[in-house]
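Why show two proteins at once? Because comparison is the fastest way to build intuition. When a single record is shown, students tend to memorize it. When two are placed side by side, the eye starts asking what differs. So, the first record is below.
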Amino acid sequence: MLASPRGATSTALARLADDGEAEYEFHLRWDPDSSLLTDAPRSVVHFGSIAAFLSPGSAVIDDVLASATRASGTHPRPLISFDPNIRPSIIGSREEALPRFEELARRVDVLKLSDVDANWLYPDLDESAQVDRLLSLGANLVAMTRGGEGAIVATASALASVTSRKVEVKDTIGAGDTFMVSLIHDLNAQENAVSDLSTAELTALGDRASALAAITVSCEGADLPWAADLRN
């Protein structure tokens, strides 16, 4: 999506604890200019976090999704991915946010979230039941990151549990974004339908994403790694 400068700039202040975990303070205005949207073909549409929940800009997200799902044979439907990246201080109560989350989750191919997100959305379900619930909403693939405990990558017919790389954690900012970027990159290159991926293929997706996220948390600052960093 394109952007144009209008009004005050939104800011986010991150404070790091001794273990690298971050707390955030936001001052936000989310009112993108929908006139800048185009119908140009896209291979991927990704959205998430505050943009998906905060009005009035969340309505523009709905327009983007509607446009993506109207893709024709001339413009094939893009891969659509969603990372809710829950920020309760901004999006309101669970009772307010859950219907919006589930509405959006029903419209995507790939849903990625953290175990913290999942526990906030579905506090009465255990991890396995959370994954089942998320898949039942309609996404073809669900990925749940679990910090140092690794990640789960699942479809309706296959599930892979991958471990995290052991590194010294300096800064967790950007870890989830790195995992998401890796998933999008690799899924966009897949020839098979996302829903048809085998356990071995899901494991490879999760291992690569986890390895890149480990590089991110081992460095200070939200500076996402390059694919070549895996070879170093």
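Second record. Ask yourself what differs from the first in the token line.
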Amino acid sequence: MKKTFVLVVLFIFPLVAYLFFASGVNNFGKLPTLTENVPDISQVDSSVTLDGKITILGFLGSDVEGKKGNAFNLNQKIYKRFSEFQDFQMVMVVPEESRNQIEPLREELSELSDDQRWNFALGSNEAILAFFQELKTDITLDADLYTPYVFIIDKDRNLRGRNDDEDEGVKFGFNTTSVAELNNKMEDDVKIILAEYRLALKKNNADRIK
């Protein structure tokens, strides 16, 4: 009996574990693409680009001071966890008229963490609205060009999200006013997309060696 138990532990359990994790990779290895070929944010602000970056994209609107709590939530729950990745960035879109509100927010963010991967794209109201519409989501901007939702954009400028979310079905964005949503959903999805790129990089490196 003891020998049988030892054999199960040594041989059967590792096999079961392998099959379980292999199945997980197949089912959860990629974050679904919901909108392809999102335009580059450079059409709003030429100093910022989405190309070649995993981007958390948000729209703070004209009242940046009033919405800084959203940025703090995002900073603490998402940015601080993933900012070590070189290809990761935050891009917050703000109307040109609110330019003077950005620096105070950046100073406060810098007190919480290294803010070098926080970027702010400034543009006209018309350019911001036109860009947002190209995301093709079920979310709208309010009159101040604000939404509490942020979006995951991959290196090829595709909007990634969930097509089988337990609460919303298709989930385009993540609500920055909800710490629970950032913790329980967005963090997992950012992990998935970063793992996806890491696996692709390892495969490419292995292929070069062959």
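One difference worth noting in the second protein: Helices lie at 2-28, 68-82, 102-112, 125-133, 179-209.
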